[in-house]
C-alpha cells in the first residue's frame, strides 16, 4: 500500500480531541465547543498553490498525516464518521478498529461508473441527529462532493445549529508533542542554514559588487536552493548550501517547501517598506544603499518556521541605535515569554520596554509582535496583540516578529526595520529555534561617506575573503566594510603588514587542518574520491565459429579487425587480445629467427603500469611465448604487425580516456519574437577549421551561438558556463569575452574547457592612407591626434564588448535562476610567470587566476585551491616558483614557474587576501610521490598534521635565519638549479649580474649607488696594486692561506672578493658580455 497511516499518532491525537471536548466547559481555550453534539469538518477540492493552507486541511494533516480532499468528517461522542470515495476508504481502513478510541465508520461513495449507493444519505442522517455542531464556518470549499452536500443540507429539515470551532482547533494543534517538535526543529535548521550560508552572503556580494539584480530575481534564486525545473531539466537541492548544516543528512527533500515566496525589499521597491507576508518582491533592481529587508519561511512535513532580517548599508547613528534596540527587545521578550503568560502581556511588555529606552519610537512600533505557528503558518487565535487574553503554553511555537515602520531618515526617505525569528515556549523562558546573522556586525555595512563633512580620505584596507573566491570584507566593531576602510583604523597602526599576514595565515592553516579532518573523518582510509583502476575483460571472438579461416593453417595470424593475435599452441589456435600483449621482439640466432611475445602479467615493475589490476593476481600467468622459424622475413612482418596493432590500441585507449569527460550539450533554444543581441566581427578560439574569417556571436534563451561566415556554428549553453570573463583592450591587442566551462565540449576535432570570443583593436583595421592631412603635416601634432583617435577607438570597443558581455551574464542569470557574475581581471595585481612553456602575464580576478590573451588559456578557480606553495624562495635568487595544490587531491598540482622575486610580496599579499593558505620553501618538492601518498589515506595524512610539514608563510625565512651554515649550502644547490631551470635569466647577464647585486649589498656606501664598469675596473686595479705591495712585504701571507680557494676567477670576484687579484682582461671580458 502506497500510503501508510500512523495508528499510534492517530490514536493519541483522537484522545486529545475527546479529552478537550469532554472538558471544554472547564477551559477557556475550548469554550467554543463546550455545548456541541458533534464536530463537523469539511474538505473540498485542494486549494491552489497561491492560497495559504486552510485550518481544516492543517487539522486533517495533524490528525492523519495526510490531506484527504473531498472528504467529510463527523466527530460524535460515540463514533467518528467519514464520507469519502472508494479509493480513500481503502486507506482509511487501516485505522478503522484502533482500540481505546471511538470507532471509525467509513461511508464510501460508489465509483463514477457504478450506480449510486446509500453512503451519502446515511451520513446525512447522522449529521441531522445532532442539535448543535461545531465547524470551521469561515472557510469556503468547492468541489462536486461539497456542492451535493450543501444542496442536501439546504433541502433537509431539521438541521443542527452551527457554531465556529476554529479557536478550539487552534488550541488542539498549538501545543506540540515530541515528534512535532523534531519536525519544527528540522524546518528551523533548514531556514537558518539558508539564511547563514546563502541569503546573507549573496546579499553581501550584491551590495559589494553593486550587481544589477531585481528583487524578484533574487527571490527566485533563493527559492531555487530547494530545487527547480521539471522533467529532464529538473535540478535537485543545492547541497553546496545544505551540506554546510549538521543534522540534514536524512532529509526528505520532497517534504521541504517555502511557506511563501521570499520577500526582498529595498528603498527602490515600488511597494515601499511593507512588513506583511502577503506581498511580492517587485521587478525593480535592488538599491545598493539604505535599508534592505529580507523575510522567508520554510515548511518541513507541513510544519512552518519563519525568519526576517534587516540589512543596512551605510547606516546613520539613529538607525544603528534603532536596530540595536530591536536586538535588546528580542532578548528581553525571550526571557519574559513563558508558560502561563498572556499574549497581550507580551505586547504590553514590549511597548513598555520601548517607552523606557526611546519613547519616540513607540508610535512606529508594529501593531502585533507575532503569532502562533505550526502546520498553519499564521494562527490568528494566538496573535500577540494588545487585546488577546489567551495564555501561552509550553511547547507552543510562535513567530516573534519585532519591527518599526514608517520611519524617516535625514534625507526624507521612508524606511522600516524588522527582526523575525521562530521561538518555542518553555516553562521559564522562550527558546530561539531559528538563529544567525542578526548582530550588528553581521547586518550593518559601512561605506566611506563622500559628503563634504568628511574631508579626510582613509586608505583602502586589504580585502578579506569569505572563501577562496570573492573577497569578503574586513569586519569592524559596528558592522562590515564594503569597498571602503574600517572606521577605527587605529587598531592596525601598531601592526606591520608582515605581522598581520603571518597571523592571518596561522588562522587559515588552522582552519585548513580542521576542515581536512572533518572532510575525511567519515571515509577514514579513502582515496579522496578517486576510484582505482578496474579490471577490463576483452573479448576477441564470441565463439569458435567467429575465428577467421586462416587458423586452419595453424600459423601465427594477426587479426586487425578483431584486434587479436592468434597463436598456435599444441595444435590449437589460441586467440590473445592485443590488450593482453605487452610487446613483441625478434632475435636472429644462426639459421633460425626467434619471435618472443611478452604478455601483461602482475609483478612486473613497469613504471606507471605497475599498478595494473588483475581479476585474480594469484592465478597462473603466461609471461611470454617464443617461436622459432627459418623464415626471418615472416617474423619481421609479424613483429611489425603486432607493434602497429599495439600502437593503434594504445592510441585508441588514450583518445577514449581524453574524451571521457566531454559532454553532449543539449539543444540551444533560439529566441523568438525579437532579434537576438549580437557581437559582430568577432573571432573564436579555439579556431574553427578553414580560412580565418570573423563571425557573429548571438545571445539566445539558454545559451550563445557563434556563427562564422562559412556557416559553421558553435553553441555554448549557459548551464555549462562556470566563469564568464571580460578583458578590455587596455595594454592589449584584443578585447575578449571568455567562457570557462564546467565540462569540456568539442569544437571541430578539439576538446576544450574554454571558449573565447574576441575582437582586434589594432590600427591595421583602419585605413588612413587617404587622409589629406598626411600630405601637409608630419610633426608631433599629427602623432598626438592619432594617439587620441586610437584611445577613443579602444574606449568605444571596450564599451561595446563589455555591454555585450553584461547582456550574456544577464541572460544566463535569467535562464539559470542564479546569478552568473561577469568577472574582469585586475591588471594592477598581475604578475609574470610560466604556467606552461612560455612566460605570460597572469591576472587575478574576483574568483580566479587567469591568462586569457594567448593559448593555452589558464583559468584556475580560487575556491578549488587547497594550499599554495612558494618554492625556491632564497635570498639572492631572482625568481621563485608557485605551486597550487587543489582540494581534489586526484588532480596534479599546477606549477607556475619563474616568477620574479620582486613580485613576491605582491603575490603573497594577493594569496592572503583571498584566504589561500601558503607556505615557503627554499627548494622544490617532488609533488608526484607526495600527492600519491596523500591520496592513499587523506584522513591519516591530516591526522598526522596535514600540510604543517610545509611550514607557514614565513617558514622559509625562519629556517634560513636559524642556521647560517645550512643557508649557504642551500644557496649553492639552488644556484646550480637556477642555472639549469632558468637559463634565460643567466644567459643575458651571466655572472656579472650577480656581481652587481653582491656589490650593492656588501660594499661600502659609494658602491651601493651603482658605479659603471670603468670605475669598478679602476678600483679593482688599485686593490691589486695594494695587495701586490703587501705580498712583497710578506704581511698578508697568513691571511691568504686562510682564505677559501676559488675554482676559477670570475667577474663576480672583481667586486665580491677583493683580496684576490683579478686580471684586467677578465674584467674587460665581463664588460663586453654586459
From TrEMBL:
One of its GO terms (cellular component) is FACT complex. Residues 831-921 form the Histone chaperone RTT106/FACT complex subunit SPT16-like middle domain. SUPFAM superfamilies: Creatinase/aminopeptidase. The keyword Coiled coil applies. Component of the FACT complex. One of its GO terms (biological process) is DNA repair. GO terms for molecular function: nucleosome binding. Residues 1016-1036 have a biased composition (Basic and acidic residues). Pfam families: FACT-Spt16_Nlob (PF14826), Peptidase_M24 (PF00557), PH_SPT16 (PF24824), Rttp106-like_middle (PF08512), SPT16 (PF08644), SPT16_C (PF21091). Residues 556-706 form the FACT complex subunit SPT16 middle domain. InterPro entries: Creatin/AminoP/Spt16_N (IPR029149), Creatinase/aminopeptidase-like (IPR036005), FACT-SPT16_Nlobe (IPR029148), Fact-SPT16_PH (IPR056595), FACT_SPT16_C (IPR048969), FACT_SPT16_M (IPR013953), Pept_M24 (IPR000994), PH-like_dom_sf (IPR011993). Belongs to the peptidase M24 family. SPT16 subfamily. Keywords: Chromosome, Coiled coil, DNA damage, DNA repair, DNA replication, Nucleus, Transcription, Transcription regulation. Residues 453-477, 952-1074 are annotated as: Disordered. Component of the FACT complex, a general chromatin factor that acts to reorganize nucleosomes. The FACT complex is involved in multiple processes that require DNA as a template such as mRNA elongation, DNA replication and DNA repair. During transcription elongation the FACT complex acts as a histone chaperone that both destabilizes and restores nucleosomal structure. Residues 966-989, 1004-1015 have a biased composition (Acidic residues). This is FACT complex subunit. Residues 635-665 form a coiled coil.
